[in-house]
Amino acid sequence: MHNEPSNVPRNPDGSALEVFLAFLKLGLTSFGGPIAHLGYFHRELIERRKWVDESEYAQFQPDGRTTLPLTPLELIHCLAQLLPPPRKHRHL
């Protein structure tokens, strides 16, 4: 994981279905324990989908001296609050 600011613009736009499918994929394929989960979340939410930027993600990572790390479920809860409401589906 990187802690430098991302030069890629953030793109938080995703439908409710896209958000559901992204987290379903993470839930079904994230193996290896909490540390591995954080890497999967980083890759999917920051690098691939650009729903969250590096600085937003980093604010939930502990400094290792005074706070305990968040569990993956707690991290997802915090990150989900940063996302805007899903865009509405357009009716044809």
In short:
It is built from four helices and no strands. By secondary structure, it is mainly α.
Written account of the structure:
The chain is mainly alpha-helical. It has one domain (about 15-80). Helices cover about 50% and strands about 0% of the residues. The protein contains 4 helices and no strands. The protein has helices at about 15-30, 35-50, 55-60, 70-80. It starts with 15 loop residues before the first helix and ends in a 10-residue tail after the last helix.
End-to-end separation: 41 Å
Give the number of domains.
Answer: 1
Main beta sheet, described?
Answer: none
Helicity, as a percent range:
40-55%
| Rg for CA atoms | 14 Å
Give the low-pLDDT segments: 1-6
Structural class: mainly alpha
Query: Average pLDDT across residues?
Result: 75
Strand content: under 5%
How many separate helices?
4
